[in-house]
Design brief:
Blueprint: H1 2-28, H2 39-49, H3 53-63, H4 71-83, H5 87-98, H6 105-121, H7 125-137, H8 142-159, H9 162-169, H10 174-179, H11 181-197, H12 201-214, H13 219-231, H14 235-248, H15 253-267, H16 270-283, H17 287-301, H18 303-316, H19 320-333, H20 339-355, E1 359-361, E2 367-368, E3 384-386
Antiparallel strand pairs: 1-2, 1-3
Length: about 400
């Protein structure tokens, strides 16, 4: 039904375009009367009424004269082809338009951009990249240039060409660059992660500092900077980066717990860590922070105190992870009489915990057990976060 509606609008646009073109010509050559509708219009309408959409489109295209008024109709038709999966047909429409010597520069740029989208849609990424790069080199108007660069950046993203993506983003105007700051920060993070793997830590540091300057709220940057400082055994600076996460996005505090514990263990400052975790629990409670806090209490005051702490927190913020840890404590330190029942219960709740996703995209709902900064479903950056509530944090 949506395609039928779009097609109907396109048909109206075709006829209006024809009438506008005829009106323009009639004003220039008065008193000549406007020419009658082309026979192909009636053929197309007959096909349309017979529900023969493809033949109708062909007939309307044959009837339509190419001019500045009808270009939008052609582009709309090609867009409809692409939506329906008939990309080759869309390409033919765009190529036939570009072959016309009387096409204005403005219309030519629009058609070239549309053709690049066609190539992208069928996986001809090299052709799309070449076409978009050529448009940028033509020095188009600012709005067209920014739009083309955005398409080119997304193309590099698809190809995982992170260096090219950052280079292209630098060519955007200031406002356009600010609109995709969080995406560009991730491109620098991707480059930095590769450098960390290659042991080029100085370059990784430079790239991450660049990412932080572009998007100060990028959680991924803070986590990678902390990882980098831990490699240098600069535990205090690593802690500083990890503490920044709480201000950037409290939902990710749970991701800092293992690294925080390692850093404070190395410094012997677990009292400070306990204070920090208690602060996090008051700001944004999570199962991971609660369990880490309970472990510190257990090491300092024993299993009973840790169990009492978990029990008290579960009254306010019940989670499966918390229940499982409480059962584990009772199994290790509780009475023998209840252990068989606790083991059965622990088996059930443990299975439940294992089957639940740990992360979910806030945009499309895609869920998994691994944190993916780029959602594989909706292709959004920074949209995936730890699951909250009873089955998560």
């Amino acid at each position: 039904m949506d395609d039928w509606l779009v097609f109907s609008v396109v048909v109206v646009a075709l006829i209006v375009g024809w009438l506008l073109g005829n009106r323009s010509r009639s004003q220039q050559t008065r008193p000549a009367m406007p020419a009658p509708l082309h026979d192909e219009y009636f053929v197309g309408l007959n096909y349309l009424l017979s529900d023969r959409t493809d033949e109708a489109i062909d007939a309307f295209i044959r009837a339509l004269e190419v001019n500045s008024e009808t270009i939008p109709a052609y582009l709309a038709l090609a867009r409809l082809f692409r939506r329906k999966g008939d990309v080759e047909r869309a390409i033919k429409v765009h190529q036939s338009l570009l072959a016309r010597p009387d096409l204005s520069r403005s219309d030519s740029l629009k058609v070239q951009i549309a053709l690049a989208k066609d190539y992208d849609a069928i996986g001809l990424l090299d052709r799309a990249e070449t076409l978009l790069s050529d448009i940028v080199r033509q020095a188009p108007p600012a709005s067209t240039r920014n739009h083309t660069l955005r398409l080119l950046i997304k193309l590099y993203e698809k190809e995982r060409e992170w260096f090219k993506a950052t280079q292209a983003s630098a060519l955007l105007e200031l406002q356009a660059r600010a609109e995709i700051a969080h995406e560009v920060a991730h491109y620098y993070c991707e480059r930095a992660a590769h450098q960390i793997t290659s042991d080029d830590l100085n370059e990784a540091q430079r790239l991450l500092e660049k990412a932080a300057s572009i998007d100060p709220n990028c959680v991924r940057t803070s986590l990678l900077l902390a990882q980098l400082q831990m490699t240098h055994k600069d535990w205090k600076l690593a802690i500083k980066h990890l503490q920044r996460v709480e201000k950037q996005d409290v939902a990710f505090v749970s991701e800092t717990v293992p690294m925080m514990r390692r850093c404070h263990d190395e410094l012997g400052t677990n009292d400070e860590l306990l204070n920090y975790f208690e602060h996090c629990m008051s700001v944004a409670p999570s199962a991971s922070v609660m369990l880490a806090t309970a472990e510190l209490i257990k090491e300092d005051r024993g299993a009973y105190a840790a169990g009492a702490y978990i029990t008290d927190e579960l009254k306010h913020y019940p989670t499966i992870k918390g229940f499982n840890r409480l059962i584990d404590l009772h199994l290790s330190y509780g009475g023998e009489s209840a252990r068989d029942s606790l083991r059965t219960l622990r088996s059930l709740t443990g299975t439940l915990e294992m089957t639940k996703p740990r992360y979910r995209c806030q945009n499309c709902g895609y869920a998994g057990k691994v944190l993916l900064w780029h959602c594989p479903s909706c292709r959004k950056w920074s949209s995936t976060k730890p699951v909250q509530g009873l089955e998560g944090e």
